[in-house]
């Protein structure tokens, strides 16, 4: 923590759209990526031997028409583009459809006497869910079954609580619909029965309570944090529901539960999965296949070459084929550690970085084994 706090002195806030000259050769600009609060597309101008080349990196590209944040900025031109591909092989539902499905899951689960547990990323995804539930807790949307109005909703994550406070301090990043709610006195990130918990004791009390409830907790992929405690108390209950609202990376606890494993280990204990498992990908903050294509099409002067990154193999390959077929732009899918050199109009292979993908714990185990062998 001390090292993290020490690093803050090297941070410097900048505005979206502000050109920053790093030196005589390099200029950059951050544009709104619409993914999470503060997420950015990077435009990079590099000058070499009086020739200027423009690189654009999409970062995590957001979806159009999502709540709270503005749509991703459209870019005029690029010589080379580096684009993400998280959902490069999927078409996602509209979030309004998934919101109605979430309300239905809450009502059905409560009638069974269970809890609804939502693993959620602390930044953006949790706030999106709060925003959507807020619309149902007010007069803006009438629903046939309003039993859920009496159901407590707990946001049990200190990081999520802090992130929500940061959201409310930065309304300049909000879209028009969210600002309209604020202007009429409706806090879009609050509603009746919404409760934020910070302390460990408050978190424990959630699972001691017998009443049905909604629990939104981090981490979003169930790899750490308080969500693991809530899963331990609810996965075995056939009355409860687990609702995934974000991407689950390969190998994570969230991915294993989502893909149907019937027994998982949490805190060293084998837990049987009896709860109903649901996935609502319409809440995702990543652009899907059509969203990525639409964003690239918006370039007035399209790139000569596109590098497709940040996706599992099936996703990167499918979006690459679609770009080549539909936009007629050359594609390259870099391998981990691969380096490339842009010289004139050519992209040439460079060296390769050796990257150790083993975890720290695994490396320590292997080192200890070697020590034992040497005795």
UniProtKB/TrEMBL annotation:
| The keyword Hydrolase belongs to this UniProt entry's keyword annotation | yes
Positions of the Beta-Casp domain = 126-257
A Pfam family that this protein carries is: RMMBL
Keyword set for this entry?
A: Hydrolase
GO MF terms here are:
hydrolase activity; RNA endonuclease activity
Q: Which InterPro entries match?
A: Beta_Casp, MBL, RibonucZ/Hydroxyglut_hydro, RMMBL
SUPFAM superfamilies per the record?
Metallo-hydrolase/oxidoreductase
SMART domains in UniProt: Beta-Casp
| Keyword Nucleus tagged | no
Question: How is this protein named in the record?
Answer: Beta-Casp domain-containing protein
Question: What organism is the protein native to?
Answer: marine sediment metagenome
């Amino acid at each position: 923590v001390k090292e993290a706090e020490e690093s803050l002195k090297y941070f410097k806030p900048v505005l979206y759209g502000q050109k920053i000259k790093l030196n005589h050769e390099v200029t950059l600009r951050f544009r709104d990526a619409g993914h999470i609060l503060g997420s950015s597309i990077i435009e990079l101008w590099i000058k070499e031997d009086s020739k200027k080349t423009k690189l654009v990196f999409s970062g995590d590209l957001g979806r159009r028409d999502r709540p709270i944040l503005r749509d991703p900025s459209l870019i005029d031109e690029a010589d080379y583009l580096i684009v993400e591909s998280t959902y490069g092989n999927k078409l996602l539902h509209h979030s309004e459809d998934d919101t109605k499905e979430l309300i239905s899951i809450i009502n059905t689960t409560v009638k069974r006497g269970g809890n609804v547990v939502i693993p959620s990323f602390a930044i953006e995804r949790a706030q999106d869910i709060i925003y959507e539930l807020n619309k149902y807790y007010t007069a803006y949307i009438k629903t046939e079954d309003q039993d859920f109005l009496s159901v407590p909703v707990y946001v049990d994550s200190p990081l999520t609580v802090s992130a929500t406070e940061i959201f409310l301090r930065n309304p300049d990043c909000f879209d028009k619909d969210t600002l309209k709610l604020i202007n009429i006195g409706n806090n879009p990130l609050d509603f009746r029965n919404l409760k934020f918990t910070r302390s460990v004791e408050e978190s424990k009390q959630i699972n001691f309570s017998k009443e049905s409830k909604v629990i939104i907790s981090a981490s979003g992929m169930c790899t750490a944090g308080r969500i693991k405690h809530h899963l331990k108390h609810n996965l075995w209950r056939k009355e409860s529901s687990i609702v995934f609202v974000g991407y689950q990376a390969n190998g994570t606890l969230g991915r294993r539960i989502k893909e149907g494993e019937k027994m998982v280990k949490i805190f060293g204990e084998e837990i049987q999965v009896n709860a109903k498992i649901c996935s609502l990908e319409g809440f995702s903050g990543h652009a899907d296949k059509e969203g990525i294509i639409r964003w690239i099409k918006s370039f007035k002067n399209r790139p000569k070459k596109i590098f497709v990154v940040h996706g599992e193999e099936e996703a990167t390959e499918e979006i690459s084929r679609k770009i080549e077929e539909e936009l007629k732009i050359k594609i390259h899918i870099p391998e981990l550690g691969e380096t490339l050199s842009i010289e004139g109009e050519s992209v040439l292979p460079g060296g390769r970085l050796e990257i150790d993908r083993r975890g720290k714990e695994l490396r320590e185990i292997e080192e200890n084994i070697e020590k034992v062998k040497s005795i």
